[in-house]
Amino acid sequence: MSVSPIRELISPLCSRTGWPWDSGSCNVFSGMSNGRSWPHITVVTPSFNQGQYLEETIRSVLLQGYPNLEYIVVDGGSTDSSVEVITHYAPWITFWVSEKDKGQTDAINKGFARATGTILAWLNSDDVYTEGALWAVAKFFSAHPDLDIGYGACRSLDAMSRCRAIHVPSEFQLKRLLSSNFIAQPATFFSRQALDAVGGLNQKYHFAFDYGFWMKAALQGRSFARIPGPPLAGFRTWQQSKSEASFEEFMRETTAIVTDIFEEAPASVASSSMRNLALSSGWRFAALGYWRNGQGMEARRCLRQVLWLAPCHILDLKLLLLYMSSFLSVEVISSLRKIKQSINRMLHTPA
User: How far apart are CA 3 and CA 136, in angstroms?
Assistant: First the structure.
């Protein structure tokens, strides 16, 4: 499918300003500094009845102005304004379809089956890329040709696209990944070889399948690296987002994913202690969810399970503070979170 030049991108359906609404924001460069062509990047957006955010998502991809982009949108048969939005931008989308599917993972795998890029990613229909993100990713992967999975910082956005916090991930360590999914999916990119080696996304799962992907790739010995610099994406946390509404399901699904992966992994790379460490990550996520909701007793129950599975966490200062603060009221916890988020934004937002 031929794609219209980005310079001809039409005006948005809604009247807003700033990134990614101003078409003048896109950067277009002729070539890399070393004279090579820009690597081929494929972005897949799974979509279903999130028309209120989909246009922002699509524009954040297209307004990158990236010259070697393949953009695929797979809609699950939305009944809201999603198809209208997609049709509005169809001349700039490589391929799109709107038909009933088996859920988010099925939609993403369907998109990757059509992908021809050497660098791949998926961006959900309520998330966004930051300005210049694809250029930063392309430069980093070009400088590290053997890299399998690269991940960067990510903003947490509210329903109005305001930045609530900035997640700055740690350098990669296998044990750190097993104990907690510190990799923000919207700010993560990976090679075609890594996707094929893992076998795509497991369609059995609907909540923690990205964590399963990272975990399986890591146990295979795939290379990971943190992409330095400003946030690459924005992850929206709102009332209907799965991460906000279903932390108990995340915990149960993480347990199932870990069980499946460690049954398949050879004993030489997957010990019982590593398995328990990975199992603890689901309980850790649930503890944070209950803590955010002011359900201190449930948070402490989950934290006790974390320590039972992985006693090494007894030295984890963050978990200790979480346990102590679980005795506070939901109002106090909310105030503490706002203070922490404000400090985080000041530390990681360029002047």
Answer: 23
